[in-house]
Amino acid sequence: MSLSLVIASVPVALPMVMKVTLSIGAKEMSDEGGIVTHLTALEEIASMKVLCSDKTGTLTTAQMTVYYDETAKAYNGFSAEQVLEFASLASNEANKDDPIDSAVLRAYAKSKGLTNVDDAVDKRKQSYTLDPEGFMGFNPIVKRTCAAVTAKDGTKWFCTKGMVDVILKTNPDDEGKQWTVDNYEEMSKQAHKADADLGVSGFKTLGVGVSKNGGPMQFIGILPIMDPPRHDTKETIRKIKEAQVAVKMITGDHHNIGKELARQIDLGTDIRTPDCLQPPSDARDLIVMQADGFAKVKPLDKHEVVQVLQDKGLVVGMTGDGVNDAPALAKAQIGIAVHGATDAAKSAGDIVLTKDGLSPIYTAIQISRRIFKRLKSYVIYRICITVQVVFFLAALAIFYNLRFKALYIILLALFHDLQIVTIAYDHQVAGAKPETPTVLGLLLQSYSMGILMFIQTMLLVSYGHLFLSDAYGDGYFESMSSKMAGNEMNKYMETTIFLQISNSSAILIFSARTVGFFFSTMPAWQLTFSTALGQVLINIWCLWAPTGLVDKLSPSDVAKVWLYDIAWLLFLDLVKMTAGRLWDKYKPATIDRNPALQAKDRNSRRMSNNLRPSYMLAQAGGAELGAKVAQLPEGQRNSVRMSRTFKK
């Protein structure tokens, strides 16, 4: 009896099932572009509540783009396309590693309807030839590139591009060719204003100047440059936020650049600088929770942000690609080395992405939450069976003074553990919010089901003789007689109880894997096949009984045991759903709360309150205007209030 209790109470297959489930999940993750270096990361990412994302290469394409549309500024009668063409002439097509020259030439090729930069350059050479004084490349002192060219019509052009200030007026102390643009005072005002406006919008700028036939240098335009967001970044961030995971951008780029990118991808424009991270205080912690991101950060700042979020009890994911990101990657519960990361970042990360962008991280969240549900299903299943069998063995000994063969308990453990390994393939739907494992919630659900299964088995022991065959009835009365007291129960009765426990335990997984009725979702074919195969073998063995280890059961008893177990399975579903609703109703509110999202929501509510009609009307002129505004169509009211407010 002691041996039976030990076998029944120790879940020997638990480590194997968890490892197999995580390993198969890691394979699924690798197919979607993420290599898992630590299997525990697949469990932790299911609970992730904040994702701190690097900007360059993750949110953006990591490829500078020159804009020559209405965003570009053109002066002195030149068009944006001409500005771009002269900028391309001042670019070195042989140096493809230079990000600015490469970006200008790609934009020029695109403006000509070509996809290949070399083809665009070859076509341009038909119109312009490089003069003997040649091309003057960039260096940190002169901060500009220049080229002297001759057009097909014989016009000589001296083209230059670089920082706006340098193109307007060169520094006499450098060693390059010197000039001051024509109409310097007026052009300087216009150029600096345009440069400032583009800077606020998050653009870097490139000034372009030309001199025609040795005449004065003309400032002809400003080309805005930006590392654009990836095509899928905006949609991916929306999906991650819908999964109740807050996203914060952490970048070393300028504050305006980070803010503009955040606006483009709908991340939120509350981008802070590192000066708000010191000194440590409750106010600092609230800023970190509410901010949409941080710009101009250093490696220590990234580490500090992760530390603050973890101190608030949040599971944090961190992306990075360089050596400077390694400390923050190691600090976060889920370190994610993005595609193209250095060896240091890969070593510090738990997941290494093999595809560009943020979408593999969203995929990882979905896969991890499905894995969590598979493991949760197994844990519920395992606890239920343990409660059922241990309580049954104890009650059998205490109330009936009977023993149950240890061989049957061994067979139950062997067959069910082999069957349940296929839970790793089960179909599950990722949850809508981070999964937070709670022992109390698991125990409430699994113990309520396990105790019910124990009652199910004991009712069959006590009252099975009322509806089963005479063979079972004879075995029941024989087992309950004083002559058999303290011994094993009748073999036919024992075989029937063994079959009932085996069938009910096997089909229990179909209930444990769902939150509703067991037939509400379709399990994976692997799980269905393994469960069916195991039970077919056990039922055939009980019907045939070739070895004599079990007594041969009548087909009618086997059928009645199946009907009995299926009917109880429906009852188990009702108990499971009731326990789940009770837990959802009375569980601590902190389990599902995400302070990083809620802080943002509170802030948005404050903003919406500030824009209510009463506030706007008080600023714009009071109730008299309010009466007039109320008569306007809904879509025009806010615009009237706003315009009136600004006038006032």
TrEMBL record:
InterPro entries, per database record: ATPase_P-typ_cyto_dom_N (IPR023299), ATPase_P-typ_P_site (IPR018303), ATPase_P-typ_TM_dom_sf (IPR023298), HAD-like_sf (IPR036412), HAD_sf (IPR023214), P_typ_ATPase (IPR001757), P_typ_ATPase_HD_dom (IPR044492)
Keyword presence, Membrane: yes
Residue spans crossing the bilayer: 379-400, 406-425, 446-468, 497-520, 566-583
Membrane topology summary: Multi-pass membrane protein
Signal peptide boundaries: 1-15
SUPFAM superfamilies, per database record: Calcium ATPase, transmembrane domain M, HAD-like
Protein's UniProt name: Plasma membrane ATPase
Pfam families documented for this protein: Hydrolase
Keywords attached to this entry: Membrane, Signal, Translocase, Transmembrane, Transmembrane helix
Main subcellular location: membrane
Record PANTHER family: CALCIUM-TRANSPORTING ATPASE
Record bears the keyword Translocase: yes
